Amino acid sequence: MTLVPEAIARELPGALLGALRLVPVAMVSPFLGGPLVPAGVRVALAVAFGAAGAALAPGAPVPAGGLALLGAGGRELALGSVLALLAAAPVEAARGAGRLADTLRGATLSELHVPALRQRESAAGDLLAQWVVVLAAWAGADRLLVAGLLGSFHAIPPGAPFAADVAREAALAAAGEVLASVVAIAAPVAAGVLAADLALALAARVAPQLGAVNAAQPARAALGLLALAAGASAAAGRLVAWVALSARLPERLAGGGP
Asked: How far apart are CA 137 and CA 150, in angstroms?
C-alpha cells in the first residue's frame, strides 16, 4: 500500500522543478497560456507540462529537499525566465512596433483598454500582436516552441546547472532583436508620415485656398497604415521564425556553445 505514495514522493521534486521552469513561460507567452488566460489555468499548464518534461528527462539525481532543492528551484526559475523572454519576444516586438507606429501617426488617443491585461494597448499594437500569434499557429511555430520547451528537460534535467554566460548572451540578443524589430517595422511609418507632411506643406504653400491643412491628419493616418502593413509583411517571416528560437536554446545551454 505504500508503493504508490513512495513513487509519487520520489517523482515529486522533479515535477516541481519542471513546473518552476515553465511557470514564467506560461505567464507571459500566449503560446503557453499568456496573460489572457486565468492564472489558475496557466499554473495548471505549467505543472502538467513540467511533470511530463521531468518524466522525459534522463535519470539525473534530483535534490530531495533542503537548501539543495531550493538552489535547484532558483536555477529553474532563472532558466524559465530566459525561455519566457525568448518565447514572448516576437509578440512584444510586434506590440511595440504597433505602439510606436500609432505614436508617429498621432493615433495614441485610440488606445484600447484590455481588462484582462489591466493595461492600455494601442490599436495597431494589439492587432500586430494577435497577427503574429495567428501566423505562428498557422505555420506550426507554436508546436515547435512547445516541443522545444519539453525537449529542454532532455538537454538540461530538472535542477541541473547550465551555462549562465550563454543564457545571458541569449537574453541580451533577444532584447536587441526586440528593439531592432520595432525600429524595422515602424521605420516605414515614420517615412510615410514625413512624406505626407511634406506633400501637404507643399500643397498648402502652392495653393493655400485648397485647405490642405485639414487633410493632414487623415493623410498621416492613411499613409502610416500603408507603411505599417508593408513593414509588418516584410518582417512577418522574421517574427514567426523567432517564435521557435527557444527550441534550440536548451541544447546551446547544455553544450555551452555560442
From this structure: 18
